[in-house]
Amino acid sequence: MAEQQKAAKTETSPLRAVKGMNDLLPPESARWEWFEDAVRRVMQRYGYAAIRTPIVEPTALFVRGLGEVTDIVEKEMYSFTDSMNGDQLTLRPEGTAGVVRAVTEHSLLYEGGKRLYYLARCSATSARRRAATASSIRPAPRRWAFMARTSMPS
Predict the structure, then answer these.
(1) How far is the C-alpha of 132 from the C-alpha of 5, rounded, in Å?
(2) Which domain holds residue 132?
């Protein structure tokens, strides 16, 4: 009976954005576009190239990279099981782990040092972040350089 009431309520309820995932409407969207363009210009001026990673990554990437006992892993990640293949997936709570995965997976370090930046939509489920905006854009420059060990002359 409760399931029927829940289904009926869902059918009559207006569709709304997911709680904490806000729409970005004009004029605020125009301000964000201006800000993102300014970030891109500055990053390009200093030799940084844009990198874009998927918004969904394997959960293990964040658990391994951030540690199992961190606030992000324990409280802020939105994780789910892919119904097609059973994979554990997570909406990106931060951008660095995905960038490190991409740099490693595509062997970018072997091509010499890279100056990369990303503008990433990140999702978090904690009340603390939800108050700020759960789905936010985070600009972040990163310098990825291959550190070679050198021999000292004897």
Answers:
(1) 34
(2) 28-144
